[in-house]
Design brief:
Helix content: 25-40%
Largest sheet: 8 strands, mixed
Oligomer: single chain
Order of helices and strands: HEHHEEHHEHEHEEEHEEEHEEEHEE
Number of domains: 2
Length: 272
């Protein structure tokens, strides 16, 4: 297994369990203890995990910790692309589409850039670049603002520009999904900007892979009930499926198998 794949697996396990042991990771990955220790040191240096005696845990300030785009884009690629395929199927020519910053929305942008002419509003330089570097006929409106570690443009300038716009649909990437706190982010200014996105949209579709469940950022963007639809992947746990199925407008689970564009709507979800 390549280092990037191991790092992604370790980070996913830390996000799921909060604290992990070197011995357990070595067994899970089928590698030596020394290899796992080196991987943890690399992730610790990148700020993705915190190295502790005999293992690793989420960084001490998990509520405000924000991994950079370059690290996040290497993680859970199959899950993110499966979710992106589901989202892309909802976009039609002529729509005004909001794309918040994030690596799952970035994956969606790659699909939309090869699709019909739309108007894209985004606070992500990375997403704007996807369209500008393609032959897409779409119009892209990039908000201004202060740049975050995840390459989102946030703050008063971004928020002010969004208040003047009206979107058919917003595809919202989030840092965490919590039963009590709702959809969260580790950046207070990004939460404010994303709330402006939500207000501007007629329909809100949250894109969140299974590892986002139970992760808590310092600031809430919106409640679970504010989402008209949430698209996750089919590795989402049963308890999360039950809660989300009862509280979001519609829960859709993208297949991570050979056909990423297929899906299964939760049987407990309301019709969207």
């Amino acid at each position: 297994m390549l280092a990037a794949a191991r790092h992604s697996a370790i980070l996913a396990e830390v996000q799921r369990e909060r604290i992990v042991r070197v011995a357990d990771l070595a067994k899970m990955l089928g590698v030596s203890l020394m290899t796992v220790r080196r991987d943890i040191e690399a992730l610790d240096a990148a700020g993705a995990v915190e190295k502790i005696h005999g293992g690793a845990k989420l960084p001490g300030g998990a509520g405000t910790h924000e991994p950079g785009f370059e690290l996040k884009v290497t993680q859970l690629k199959d899950e993110k692309m499966a979710i992106a395929h589901e989202a892309a199927a909802q976009v039609r020519e002529g729509m005004a589409v909001g794309l918040s910053a994030g690596t799952t929305t970035w994956a969606l942008a790659q699909l939309l850039s090869a699709g019909p002419r739309i108007t894209v509003v985004t606070n992500s330089v990375r997403i704007a670049d996807v369209f500008h570097q393609s032959s897409s006929p779409s119009t892209v409106i990039l908000t201004g603002g202060e740049r975050t570690p995840s390459d989102a443009l946030v703050g008063p300038l971004a928020t002010s520009s969004l208040k003047q716009l009206h979107l058919d649909v917003l595809f919202l990437g989030v840092h965490g999904v919590d039963a009590d706190a709702g959809f969260t982010t580790p950046n207070v200014l990004e939460a404010e900007t994303n709330r402006a996105f939500v207000t501007a949209a007629r329909r809100v579709v949250v894109l969140a892979d299974h590892t986002k469940w139970g992760t808590l950022g310092i600031s809430t963007i919106a409640s679970l009930e504010d989402a008209d639809e949430l698209i996750s992947d089919d590795l989402l746990g049963s308890e999360a499926r039950r809660i989300l199925g009862e509280r979001v407008g519609r829960l859709r689970l993208a297949s991570t198998g050979d056909a990423p564009h297929t899906s299964a709507a939760s049987p407990t979800a309301a019709a969207g």
